[in-house]
Every structure is written in C-alpha cells, then in structure tokens.
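From the methods appendix. Each design record in this collection lists the tokenized structure first, followed by the designed amino acid sequence. Records were kept in a plain field format so they could be parsed without special tools. The example shown here is representative of the layout used throughout.

RECORD:
FOLD TOKENS (321 positions):
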C-alpha cells in the first residue's frame, strides 16, 4: 500500500496485493476521521477477466490481487457510500472514489401531513422508479411468464401507485392492455391521477386496502401487491386472507413483493432496516415470507421466492385432478 506522489491533490492510496480487510479498514478509518471522500487505486478489473475475486495477476513483474468491479460496488453499498465512476490511473490501475451519502436525504423519515399521500405524487417516494431496477424487471417478467397470463385476463393491483407494475405487465403480455381488464386500488389520489394518465384503459379506485372486501371488485386472474403488505397500519395477514378467499378466480395467481432496501441520497442500499440496528435485519421479512408461504400452501398454491431489493413471492394454484 503506497501513496501516489504524482498528483497535486491529496494522493490516492495504492493497493496492489493487500487483502480486502486491509482496504476495508483503510476506508472505514478515513471516514471515521471525518473524510468526506476516500480515493484508492486498485488493479483495473479488466486485467483479470475470467478470474474470481482474490486471484492473483502479475503485470510487469508486480503481483496484484484481482477484484471484479462488482466487489467495489457491493463494498460501497454495504458501507452506505457512493461509488463514483472509476477513472484511469497509472496503468494497470484505476482510481476509485468513495464518498459519504447525505444522511438528511432520507425520505423514509419524511412526515406526510396527509397520511394517504405518504407515497403520493408529491412525495420523495414518487422519485423511485421500479422499472429502473433490473432485478425487479427481470424477476417480475419471469414471474409473469411462469403464471402464464392471457391477454383477456382480469388483473388487480393493490397499492398501485403510479402504475409501474401494471405498465410492466402490459408490456410483457401482448394484447393485455386492450383485451384485458386492469384495476388498481390506492388511497393516494395524486398517485392514481398519474396512473390514469399512464394507463387510460384501466380502472382505478381510491380506497383504503383495509376495506378491500367491501369494494366488491369481483374476482381476478392475478392479484399484485408490490411493496404494499408491509405498509404501516395495514393488517397484512387479513389482507392476504381477503385476496385468497374473495379476490381470485379458481385459476388466479398472486404476486407479492416486500421491500428489502432503503433509499438514501439517490442510492439504493440493500437490506431491510429495523429501528436501532445499523446493519440490515432480515428476520422480520423472513418471518412474514414464511407465514405467507405456509398460508398459501395450505390453500393449494405453489410458491416461489425470488428477488434482491424487492423480494418477490409468486403463488400459482396447484392443478386439481
């Protein structure tokens, strides 16, 4: 580990064959000492294509440890830092710049004057597009293919927001937007206005999900609830029972998701957080997923759990012979 004397700005620290824990200690120590940004130089990952993290690469007689770019992306995310775009350094190295995130830019702590508009069009949550999360897009697409939805299906989304999931669904199932029936329920009227503009052929209902049974919307071939069941003040188990018992056709399927991330200063940080815990605490989410699976299996559904920042549970009816 050396400092690069060629730069007039504070030198980046060069790492060649040092183990990752030494780099981690260096980064954490500098931020603990008050640094707003830490710069390090490491082997350009392109020199180790096909190697795993930790394998050795010798260039010009000097031994380096290879680490794929994903290692640095994951390190930054786990430490709650922003990784800026890598830039060239003296070959064969690149420079990585890690900077602090602004802790005040945390929309999770925002208080909405109107509780029904906590996730409305004017909220910080409205800045988040699920359709820009590749894991979510790919996992939902895989789930829809597994469900086998037809173009004339009836689809209900609970907590529809501005309609991201329904938009993805109509793009994935040819003809659904014209031949199918799409219904969305949300208690945010401003979010529903955005959804109506986006999906003019769908029907949207402003209502509290606790009142779902009384809405008499009929039965559906698919019910979606994306990051909805964990909403504060909502009885997720009662809602799941209502979906299974009153909202599905005999061949109807369910697609649920639970948030497994938080949003801070433009970054998505992996892992659900529990109050007073610094690191992700997944126990509550695992408990809920286990309950949902057990309940659905008792009611003759096959289930599958996938996902990363959004954990998806797909439930499809088991064929009755």
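DESIGN:
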């Amino acid at each position: 580990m050396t400092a690069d004397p060629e730069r007039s700005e504070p030198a980046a620290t060069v790492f060649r064959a040092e183990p990752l824990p030494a780099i981690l200690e260096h980064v954490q120590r500098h931020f603990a000492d008050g640094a707003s940004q830490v710069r390090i130089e490491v082997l350009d990952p392109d020199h180790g294509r096909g190697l795993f993290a930790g394998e050795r690469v010798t260039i010009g007689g000097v031994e380096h440890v290879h680490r794929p770019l994903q290692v640095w992306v994951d390190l930054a995310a786990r430490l709650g830092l922003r990784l800026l775009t890598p830039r060239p350094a003296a070959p064969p190295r690149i420079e990585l710049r890690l900077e602090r995130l602004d802790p005040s830019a945390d929309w999770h702590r925002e208080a909405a004057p109107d509780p029904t508009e906590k996730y409305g069009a004017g909220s910080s949550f409205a800045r988040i597009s699920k359709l820009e999360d590749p894991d979510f897009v790919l996992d939902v697409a895989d789930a829809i293919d597994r469900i086998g939805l037809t173009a004339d299906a009836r689809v209900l989304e609970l907590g529809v927001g501005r309609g991201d999931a329904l938009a993805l669904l109509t793009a994935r199932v040819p003809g659904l937007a014209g031949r199918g029936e799409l219904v969305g329920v949300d208690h945010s009227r401003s979010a529903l206005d955005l959804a109506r503009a986006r999906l003019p052929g769908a029907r949207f209902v402003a209502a509290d999900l606790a009142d779902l049974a009384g809405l008499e919307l009929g039965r559906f071939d698919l019910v979606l609830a994306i990051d909805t069941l964990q909403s504060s003040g909502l009885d997720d188990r009662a809602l799941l029972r209502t979906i299974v018992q009153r909202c599905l056709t005999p061949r109807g399927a369910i697609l649920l998701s639970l948030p497994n991330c938080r949003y801070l200063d433009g970054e998505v940080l992996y892992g659900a957080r529990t109050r007073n815990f610094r690191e992700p605490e997944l126990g509550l989410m695992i408990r809920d997923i286990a309950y949902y699976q057990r309940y659905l299996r008792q009611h003759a559904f096959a289930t599958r759990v996938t996902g990363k920042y959004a954990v998806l549970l797909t439930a499809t009816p088991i064929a009755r012979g």
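APPENDIX NOTE: Residues 56 and 250 are 57 Å apart (CA to CA).
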